[in-house]
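Worked example (supplementary).
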Amino acid sequence: MSTTKNVNLPDIGDLDSVDVIEILVKIGDLVKENDSIITLETDKATMEIPAPFSGRVTNLAIKVGDKVTHGDLILTVESDSEPAEIESEPSVKSKEPEVSLEDSTPAKDKPNKLDQKKEEISLDTEPDSHASPSIRKLARELGVSLSKISGSGQKGRILAEDLKSYVKQIVTTGNIDDEVEIIPLSRIKKISGKHLTHCWTTIPHVTQFDEVNIEQMEQFRQHQKERNIKLSPLVFIMKAVVQVLKNHPNFNASLDKNGENLVIKKYFNLGIAVDTPNGLVVPVVRDVGKKSLIELAKELKETSERAREGLLKPEEMRDAGFTISSLGGIGGTQFTPIINSPEVAILGVSRTQIKPIWNGESFEPATMLPLALSYDHRVIDGAEGARFMADLNQVLRNITEMLL
Amino acid sequence: MIKTQVLVIGSGPGGYTAAFRAADLGKEVVLVENHDNLGGVCLNVGCIPSKSLLHTAQVINEAKSANQLGINFESPKIDIKGVRKNKENTVNKLTGGIKVLAKARKVKVLTGYAKFLSTNQVSLGGTDEIIEFEHCVIAAGSRVTKLPIFPFEDERVMDSTDALLLEDIPKRLLIVGGGIIGLEMATIYDALGSEITIVELCEQLIPTADKDIINPLFKRIKKIYSNIFLNTKVTKITAIKKGIKVSFEGKDAPETDTFDKVLVSIGRSPNGHLLDAEKAGVDIDKDGFIVTNRQMKTNVDNIFAIGDIVGQPMLAHKATHEAKVAAEVICGQKSGFDALTIPSVAYTDPEVAWTGKTEKELTTEGIKFKKGVFPWAASGRNLSIGRSEGITKGLFDSETGKILGMGICGTNAGELISEASLAIEMGCDMSDIALTVHAHPTLSETTAFAAEMAEGTITDLMPQKNKK
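After joint prediction of all chains, the assembly is encoded as:
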């Protein structure tokens, strides 16, 4: 026996009417518990909503473009261990005794055949393709199947420019042969791409480099490791940054929209850039100053994991005062990080190296940590930037200063 | 032997459109027509003469009802020759126009009955001419369906073509078949003075349309006509001296009755089997329709077919659009017939028109819909033209609000339905229609009001209950 259960939108934080940008299941699909069923997008983040239990999807209550709120019905699932025969699908197909027209071979699948058979056209008028007769005509002429295009017009209407840019993309990337593949950017990349372009083009960046001798920190970490407490350099850097920010409040700030006022933050929240399979996200660790190294390590681990799984809530990515981007685990000697507007500075961390350091008498090996501080030159001038870096160097080199 | 790039068989709206379009795209075209006049059924014995006579009927009816307006006309004296003449003038103007257009495009017009010899040759009946073509468009249309039980050899038993000749005005006229053609002929003959009886096999007139949009028409003509027998079958028709004796089988109908004339309008049949198209290897289904794809191409690569001969609905405006597709595909363009809707119109009084899905279809297909009905009794424009009946009904997707169909009954419904057809093609939602400013007072306003009824934003009436 099967039972029908409704899947409603779970609590996704304090958000009303969030856009549905993707529906990952269709009627008749079998979903397992925790399989993603839909993707939601806010201006800050995208999140996938998992199925709360397994079963077969019998009804979809929403569609792409809808806005949903906590408690809204998403879909109905028939819980049944026996996968029931889907009867509707074949009958729907047989209902259309379409003369086997060429539309079953849309041009995109076999683009090189276009010239050979002129009448191979796309007659794609599925009800979901929201396009006017003239656009349908244009699509036929261009040999484009409308179901492959997402419309940019109102309510997803496919416009002439959508068609043209779709074709242009194929032409410019030379997708006409099989040697390249077109992969659309992930949602996160599309969103962060716009933001990064804005940051890069509107903020006059200066990047200040430095190297810190972290021998003392390494010894301390080694010691803790022996006690089974694992602390990454990043948590020390976070602590040190907060300490330095307290003395350099201009770095824990944002520039207002018209660029006339600096908004100094009295709280010390740090954005930590996290690499995920879908792209870069920046979760925020709150009140770093009030948390112990162990607490920070734990929170960082947990947050990064959830970021990689795409489970971050939009409010977890808000209200940072300063951002750290660490590529130390991967490699590289230095890089120039892009400031995460409206913040005014960002610290980039590269991989530590053991280098010979002159102690006044001889060279001795020391673990050196490369740091890069990008700052908004409208807010921070060079001397201030250098002083910030010098102070940070001081604290990190001599971690006992963190106690101050 | 005549050689041509494109041969079009049949010069109805589909045929001449295909011929002209192909010629405009640079092809050498031969157009073959069996009859002396170009224009096919539509222009000669269909749409156009019937509309001319329907206009005559409208003038008579309006003069008759003018007393409501405080104007009294004498009973009209009908000069049937004059009525015929006017109709013929209209037809001749249009068919003559086609001839001129054909000439201007250098389309060669030949008279005769074309029959296929092979995939690239036809013979021209009545001549020993053979025409060889690269591409052919079959636009040979349909004919009146004639059942053997009806004695058509007696001239008092008419089909629609006979009825349009207007030989006389019978005192008692029976119309067998309450579809669009039967009802339009009823409108004409009623105005000219005949007593009309209609007999229809189904439970409603124009069975394909929704009952509620037929209702205003039904209510009106029920009062005017002698009888409308629904759910009734004609079992026998015999020509006797004093008239045509007809036997009925139905609850309300008498067993037999005798009429001065009988018009049989029970439908039309495609001419698929009448062209020897089998000799070209063209697939024809059991009903006589030629099978095509959506580029109007038959199973034979160089032979296309359009119009009544390829399927329902048998309407000129479907044929003309298919014709352009066929001609364009022949000329190498990537055209296809992908219209979302083909509107239907009955030019009765009041007119009935519908487009998109009917309520019946939506119910059968299990599509959930929201309905907005605006009765014309609340339309200022309708009342001021002296009418009270009429409705506009909009059908919208219950989830998205997208327009699925519309039905209108009332004066000028046929003119009003195009807005809904455009809305369907453009994928409008009911709010799009409701929020579009319609001029006041107009009949077209009722389209917006129907959408407002469904939206629940109507103020000219009380909104339907289930609305926001």
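Two points are worth noting when inspecting this output. Residues 157-266 of chain B form a domain with the FAD/NAD(P)-binding domain fold (CATH 3.50.50.60). Chain B is about 35% helix and 25% strand.
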